[in-house]
Write a structure and sequence with these properties.
The complex is a heterotrimer of chains A (795), B (265) and C (157). Chain A is built from 20 helices and 28 strands. Chain A is of the alpha+beta class. Chain A folds into 3 domains: 157 residues, Aldehyde Oxidoreductase, domain 4 (2-Layer Sandwich), CATH 3.30.365.10; 200 residues, Aldehyde oxidase/xanthine dehydrogenase, a/b hammerhead (Aldehyde Oxidoreductase, domain 3); 247 residues, Aldehyde Oxidoreductase, domain 4. Chain A is globular and about 85 Å long. The longest helix of chain B has 19 residues. The mean pLDDT of chain B is 97. Chain B starts with 6 loop residues before the first strand and ends with a helix. Chain C has 2 domains: 78 residues, Roll (Ubiquitin-like (UB roll)), CATH 3.10.20; 67 residues, DNA polymerase, domain 1, CATH 1.10.150. Helices cover 35% and strands 17% of the residues of chain C. Chain C contains 6 helices and 5 strands; from the N terminus they run E-E-H-E-E-E-H-H-H-H-H. In chain C, strands 2-1-5-3-4 form a 5-stranded mixed sheet, with helices on both faces. The longest helix of chain C is centred in the last third of the chain and has 13 residues. Chain C is elongated. The N and C termini of chain C lie far apart (56 Å). The chains are: A alpha+beta (795), B alpha+beta (265), C alpha+beta (157). Chains in contact: A-B, A-C, B-C. The interface between A and C is large, with 59 and 58 residues.
């Protein structure tokens, strides 16, 4: 299969590819710009009740007694319920998958029963007429606890002297070993061995809109409609159905505007399941909106890895082998249904990813702790794998006295080596490392920057340049989750309908979280059908309306959903031409669609406006041949299957200046060259990349969920948990190489996570490059002034 | 989170305000930029908020004989925009853009900031460095307290129950006076990791203790080297979430050096 | 005990009267009582800027002001400034430059940007970055926002 049918063409543009590749503003941004979006908390319902949760103040404790009597008398209170009461309506779950061999986790309830396993875990729900009243009652709940030994440190967890879950013999959730063989021999034969331990702080997504859910149970129908700030409506439909005992088709999940997600909103949260159960129990709509403090304590966290990595290199700078040992802590439960084993698994899969060595060994231990759960957050594992790889690569280059860019050039997999099987077992279809490297070095004027750096060093100005090459998982096939038994769809569908006036309605199972999904679907649909974009309307995020599909995660929206839209658009176009040929009594092959009309293929002359086609097909089908039925609604689906993942590649560079007196890092500029295949809308792609870079900068410099030794979250507010703000961010220059995937017609790969994947490694390398003349080096993210000053022996 | 329930009164006169402050669990509400977040997080639960923003005569910036009197309700934005303050109290003018962000500066007041006495806030240190005098009134009397004596500890001041800080008086800077304001923040507008307000020989640190800390030993030294060495006697900064005490002390030295160099060039 | 007070204020040019609990902050009042849901509550402790609205012509954090304090004030929200077309220039630039993604921060960001525009001075990118540094955006890299504001404030493009 190839993308033989491109170029697409669309009227209104003279470009062969129609709207593909055009920086078209997103139509759906207009309502958001006027404050007329509809996020969950904007919806108004009769008899709406508000729920808040009484959360454990302890990291690990037995619930000895909960007394709701005072709370129940508080004004406006409708109900206060504990875990047992809610469990009668909502069954527990276990976050394991069959393809992660040996992964284990105990059953988890919507509201904890008997014991709480992290500070912030919900142990009771208070439902009241207003949120403020519910919070008033929360303060009146009396609880008696028996504190249990808490395991906070991951090394301590691995040692297993204190076991968190009694049903298990140790605290290990998941472990994996991968070995190509020959690693010890490669190290023995190496001229140079470099070794380092890197640490990655625990951080979280901080979506500006907190998690939000409004569940509306209809007792008469035994049906449930859930308005949910989610990335995966169909996955949630399945989960609500199975855990609440409501037939799947009677559960409808609607995701209207979603105020940021980044992987935070693709998991099953106990408090959200409880909210749905409470709607069933109380037979009325119930809303839960996580406030900012709850978000920090209960939105999934991510990262928290400590990795020891070793690399064997020849005297001439050829990478021979990698050997690594990753320890990661995930909180007390593996998160349902994706599990919390995936991030570590990705580190094992992806480390060393851009390079052509053949020997590879990796060991992974994922352990339970009594802190908030961690799970898949934007770029899952990539920032770790990239920083490890690129950090150790820079160290080797320095040891050999080679320029870091040249060292990479020597080791990157050649652009003509594909398809290629990497030593960890993953397969690459087509990558372009050398093209992206060359483009980056040009874009940033690498040589000039190096010269400037030298000059400035003599003036005691310490600038650093950091590179980070990477590969990225996108367009996942069922190999990601489906094969492990998760009811998570790897396929997506699109329905296109020609309206009687000649407009096109698109309904797609991939959702919009602001990245511009609906905008690019309109571009693709308009191009495929042959109408102008103003004739297209897009609907997503409603299980009652769209075809079945996975939603938005793992950089899959454009590549998978976009392909479904393209295929449906082409099918609709063909059907429209068929109808036109009946109406006009002309051969279908002589007709085309352009300028929102049926036109002659050769002459381009207008034969019939599309609204006339719509009028005849819908209102006067009696004028069409007896044996002909017009079909103006078509649905197509797409699943990538040839490769487990459609890998992309890219490279980033960071230019920083470190103040050795204060340990402050000033970000001067950042560059990103990405190959995400066909670029549908460069403007959207670029700012999404930049947003990703800024999240990666957050990881490198600012963000970390700090816990006390007792397991108390110390910085769970916007004032204390530092997210990147505009003042400190650099301008970020983006460029592209386009190597379309040949698996689809559209050729698009994903791009949503690339920025976040590469930026931490690039910034780390830049800081270490700046610190090099001062004989200092940092390897624990985030690189706070404290850590940099310590490295400089000043603190 | 939503604030707990409380009553609210906005008195129209000082006597009325003093009457209301007799309530045992009353709190003064001015700009509210620190109080309201603490209410919203249920960290504070007053029974009565006495909104003083309607009181007459507390919102003026007046240049008087040798000093500038700033009414307690003057917002950060007005200080930022005041030509009088730029001219007569350059240290304050230098400090104010560091306070949070525009939307907060529009409501936050100088009196609120001084009375809250956040150890990482800018104004208290400036007031100490400038040897400002605060005017405190209660139902019956008015007293004047020097800034250095006003700050007593962590969020603790000399304000007695029922008293209102009505104004602060700052001496007009003379031609030979020199001021430097420096602070280190991770992000624009954040509270300082550590900061330094200098007016002539008064070196006052903030974010360095439970209240503004005057570096008496360091500032008495003749050379920078001696001053830096003496700093450890002046400061024992408490660690914060991200910075150890030793780091903050080191950073205090860096600020000292920078200020010293600015003053001597 | 809930203490409630009568307030009268002008919101987007219309006089409204309501009885509100003392503890209700301005952005909840706008969202819940007036159903003007364009201003968003992102943190409720004054850090994120999503609730930025204009009171008596000055931008404020809607979560750091009580509704009862707005008695007698003139309040402008994203809805009002959209309808009056005051924000039209910025909205157009934000749209054309894709200076928003999820849109949750956008009303507050526009309020902050308009505040800068109203000062009537040309500004550098640095100054723009500083001025919007109290408005958190997790989606964009802030760059498109800076580009859009720069275009309108400096009359470029």
């Amino acid at each position: 299969m190839g993308k033989a049918e491109l170029p697409l063409h669309a009227p209104g543009t003279k470009l062969d590819r129609g709207y593909i590749g055009q920086s078209v503003p997103r139509p759906n941004a207009q309502r958001l710009l006027q404050g007329r979006g509809s996020y969950v908390d904007d919806l108004r319902f009769p008899r709406l009740a508000h729920v808040v949760f009484y959360r454990s103040p302890h990291a690990h404790a037995k619930i000895k007694r909960l007394d709701f009597s005072k709370g129940l008398k508080s004004e406006g209170v409708i109900a206060i319920l504990d875990g047992r009461a809610v469990a009668e309506y909502c069954t527990p779950w276990v976050g394991v998958l069959a393809h992660l061999k040996g992964i284990k986790s105990p059953p988890q309830h919507a509201i904890a029963i008997e014991r709480a396993c992290w500070q912030g875990e919900a142990v009771a729900a208070v439902v009241a007429e207003t949120r403020a009243q519910a919070e008033d009652a929360l303060g009146l709940i009396e609880a008696e606890w028996e504190e249990l030994p808490a395991v906070i440190d991951m090394q301590e967890s691995l040692e297993g002297k204190k076991i968190i879950h009694k049903e298990f013999a140790d605290n290990i959730c998941f472990s994996r070993q991968h070995d190509t063989g020959g690693v010890d021999e490669a190290f023995a034969a190496a001229d140079v061995v470099v070794e380092e331990t890197f640490e990655f702080g625990r951080h979280t997504g901080v979506c500006l809109e907190g998690r939000a859910i409004l569940a509306d149970y209809n007792a008469a129908e035994h049906s449930l409609t859930v308005y949910h700030s989610t990335q995966a409506p169909h996955m949630m439909q399945d989960i609500f159905s199975r855990h609440l005992g409501i037939p799947e088709a009677s559960v409808r999940v609607i995701a209207r505007d979603v105020g940021g997600s980044f992987g935070i909103k693709v998991h099953v949260y106990p408090d959200e399941m409880a909210t749905a159960a409470l709607s069933v129990m109380l037979r009325r709509p119930v809303k839960f909106v996580a406030d900012r403090l709850e978000s920090f304590a209960t939105d999934i966290h991510a990262r928290e890895h400590k990795v020891k990595i070793k690399m064997a290199v020849s005297r001439t700078g050829e990478i021979l082998a990698f050997d690594l040992d990753d320890l990661s802590a995930i909180g007390p439960y593996s998160v349902y249904p994706r599990t919390s084993g995936i991030e570590g698994n990705q580190v094992v899969n992806l480390t060393g990813g851009p390079y052509k060595h053949r020997k590879y060994r990796a060991k992974l231990n994922v352990v339970f702790t009594n802190k908030n759960v961690t799970c898949q957050y934007r770029a899952v594992g990539h920032p770790i794998a990239v920083a490890l790889t690129e950090g150790i690569v820079d160290k080797a280059a320095a040891k050999l006295g080679m320029d870091p860019a040249e060292f990479r050039r020597k080791n990157l997999i050649p652009d003509d080596a594909y398809p290629y099987t990497f030593p960890s077992g993953i397969k690459f279809e087509r990558l372009s490392h050398h093209q992206t490297l060359n483009k980056l070095l040009d874009l940033m004027s690498y040589k000039k920057l190096r010269e400037e750096q030298e000059v400035l060093r003599k003036q005691n100005i310490f600038r650093g340049i950091g590179l980070a090459a990477m590969i990225e998982v996108t367009n996942p096939s069922p190999a990601f989750y489906g094969v492990g038994g998760a009811r998570i769809s790897a396929q997506d569908g699109a329905t296109l309908r020609l309206e009687p006036t000649g407009m096109v309605t698109v309904m797609c199972s991939v959702t919009e979280q602001g990245q511009g999904t609906e905008g690019i679907f309109a571009q693709i649909a308009a191009s495929a059908v042959g109408v102008s974009m103003d004739k297209v309307r897009v609907i997503t995020g409603d299980t009652g309306v769209t075809p079945y599909g996975g939603g938005t995660w793992a950089s899959r929206g454009a590549g998978i959903g976009g392909e479904a839209v393209l295929l449906a658009g082409r099918a609709l176009r063909s059907n429209m031409l068929e109808i036109a040929s009946k109406i006009l009594n002309l051969e279908k092959e002589t007709l085309d669609i352009g300028n929102n009309a049926i036109i002659g293929k050769l002459t381009q002359e207008k034969k019939m406006p599309l609204e006339e086609l719509g009028r005849v097909a819908y209102f006067r089908p009696d004028t069409l041949p007896m044996d002909f039925q017009a079909e103006l609604t078509v649905t197509r689906h797409y699943t990538p299957r040839q490769y487990g993942f459609t890998f992309t590649n890219g490279i980033q560079a960071s230019l920083v200046e470190v103040d050795p007196d204060t340990g402050f890092v000033k970000l001067l500029k950042h560059w990103c060259v990405e190959d995400s295949g066909t670029v549908i809308n460069p403007m959207l792609v670029d700012e999404q990349l930049r947003g990703g870079v800024v999240q990666g900068i957050g990881a490198a410099l600012f963000e970390e969920c700090l816990y006390s030794p007792e397991g108390q979250l110390l910085n769970g507010s916007m004032a204390d948990y530092l997210v990147p703000m505009s003042g400190e961010m650099p301008d970020i220059i983006c460029a592209h190489v386009e190597t379309p995937t040949l698996q689809s017609q559209l050729g698009a790969k994903g791009v949503g996570e690339a920025g976040t994947a590469g930026a931490p490694g690039a910034v780390m390398n830049a800081i270490n490059d700046a610190l090099a003349p001062l004989n200092a080096r940092v390897t624990a993210m985030p690189f706070t002034p404290e850590r940099i000053l310590r490295a400089l022996a000043k603190a | 989170m939503k604030a707990p329930a409380f009553a609210y009164v906005k008195p129209a006169s000082l006597p009325e305000a003093f009457e209301l402050l007799q309530h045992p669990n009353a709190k003064i509400l001015a700009g509210g930029q620190s109080l309201i977040p603490s209410l919203n997080m249920r960290l504070s639960s007053p029974e009565l908020l006495v909104d003083i923003t309607g009181l007459p005569g507390l919102s003026e910036i007046k240049v008087l004989n040798g000093f500038v009197r700033i009414g307690t309700l003057v917002t950060h934005t007005r200080i930022e925009q005041s030509p009088e303050i730029k001219k007569h109290i350059p240290l304050l003018a230098q400090a104010v853009p560091h306070i949070a962000h525009a939307a907060i500066r529009n409501r936050g007041t100088i009196g609120g900031s001084l009375a809250l006495a956040d150890p990482a806030a800018e104004y208290p240190a400036c007031a100490v460095a400038l040897e400002a005098v605060f005017i405190l009134k209660n139902k019956t009397t008015e007293r004047r307290v020097k800034a250095e004596q006003f700050f007593k500890g962590l969020f603790e001041t000399d304000l007695k129950p029922g008293e209102i800080l009505t104004a602060a008086e700052f001496p007009v800077a003379g031609k030979s006076d020199r001021s430097v304001f420096l602070e280190l923040t991770r992000r624009q507008g954040d509270y300082a990791i550590i900061g330094l307000a200098v007016h002539n020989s008064n070196f006052v640190y903030f974010g360095a203790g439970s209240m503004p800390v005057v570096a008496k030993n360091a500032s008495s030294k003749k050379t920078l080297k001696e001053a830096k060495a003496a700093l450890a006697k002046d400061l024992n900064p408490p660690a914060d979430l991200y910075h150890s005490s030793a780091t903050k002390l080191h950073l205090a030295g860096v600020l000292l050096e920078r200020a010293w160099n600015m003053l001597t060039t | 005990m809930e203490h409630a007070y009568d307030i009268t204020l002008t919101v987007n040019g219309t006089t409204v009267s309501r009885r509100v609990p003392a503890r209700l902050h301005l952005v909840d009042f706008l969202r819940e009582d007036l159903e003007l849901t364009g201003s968003h509550a992102g943190c409720e402790h004054g850090v994120c800027g999503a609730c930025t609205v204009r009171v008596n012509g000055e931008i404020v954090r809607g979560c750091l002001m009580l509704a009862v304090q707005a008695n007698g004030c003139r309040v402008d929200t994203i809805e009002g400034l959209s309808d009056s077309k005051e924000l039209a220039g910025l909205q157009k630039a934000f749209h054309q430059k894709n200076a928003l993604q999820c849109g949750f921060c956008t009303p507050g960001m526009l309020m902050a940007a308009q505040d800068l525009l109203l000062k009537g001075k040309k500004v550098s990118r640095e100054e723009i970055r500083t001025h919007i540094s109290g408005n958190y955006c997790r989606c964009t890299g802030y760059q498109a926002i800076v580009d859009a504001i720069e275009e309108v404030v400096n009359g470029k493009g």
